[in-house]
Amino acid sequence: MGSNMKLQSMVITQSQDQMLKQVEEAGMQSILKRDGVRNHEYEGYRISKQRNGVSFDTVTVRQYEMLLGDHPQVSTGPPVSIGWNYEQQQPESIDDFETRRCLYRKKQLNHMVMNYYKRTAIIERAGFTAIEIKAASCEADRIKRQRYVTRRMLPLWKIEDVIESTGRKAKRAVSRNQAVQIGTT
Question: What contacts 60, CB < 8 A, 6 or more positions away?
Answer without folding.
Answer: 10, 11, 88, 89, 90, 91, 92
